Amino acid sequence: MDKNRLAAFMDAVIAIVMTILVLELDKPSEPTLSAFLALRAHFATYAITFLWLASMWISLHNAWYVVDRISSRTMWLSMALLFFSSLFPYATSLVADYFSSRVVQCFYGIIVIATTVMMVLIYRSLSKDDRRPETEQYMKRVVSILTVDIAIKAAGVILGLLIWPPLVSVGTLIAALFIAVKRKDNPVGKRT
Questions:
Q1: Looking at the 3D structure of the chain, how many domains does it have?
Q2: What is the CATH number of the domain that holds 83?
Q3: What is the 3-state secondary structure (H, E, C) of the chain?
């Protein structure tokens, strides 16, 4: 199957999810700085989720550039990724409203981890879809980065359960920044 059709569909869904995120932001009760500051958890959660989705989109964009073909397995894994991604506006809204809730933060963490696990499965599938050595090498490298990413997020969830619930969101932020730093040496369009 042509990879471009799946890539375009995934781009569209991720763009919609990112748009819904901003629509879920609460408006301040009045046009004052203190009213905006009262919504800091909402804006922080929005920013963390947006950054994570942007990081995911950039990673997928690079993957589509590297591969020449995809399988139905990759398409189904991509649909599972989009399923978990579609939960981000809901989970983000809950975190914004109940920032210190262990249950809500862990729900958010599970969604973030499930999305990352789907990314790992997609990269492994792409490696099987396109057996060229450069593709396999690239996918293996990304999977190793995402494995560390999952470990950071899992640590955030565990620490959020045991110590302070917002550490789940902090772990997600650290993981997104880790991905951005690790991937900066692989600019868009460069095959490795």
A1: 1
A2: 1.20.1410
A3: CCHHHHHHHHHHHHHHHHHHHHHCCCCCCCCCHHHHHCCHHHHHHHHHHHHHHHHHHHHHHHHHHHCCCCCHHHHHHHHHHHHHHHCHHHHHHHHHHCCCCHHHHHHHHHHHHHHHHHHHHHHHHHHHHCCCHHHHHHHHHHHHHHHHHHHHHHHHHHHHHHCCCCHHHHHHHHHHHHHHHHHCCCCCCCCC
Q: What is the pLDDT along the chain (192 residues), one digit of tens a residue?
A: 679 999 999 999 999 999 999 999 999 999 999 999 999 999 999 999 999 899 999 999 999 999 988 999 999 999 999 999 999 999 999 999 999 999 999 999 999 999 999 999 999 999 999 999 999 999 999 999 999 999 999 999 999 999 999 999 999 999 999 988 887 655 444 544
| 26 assigned to some structural domain | yes
192 in a structural domain: no
Nearest Cα to 157, choosing from 144, 145, 169, 173? 169
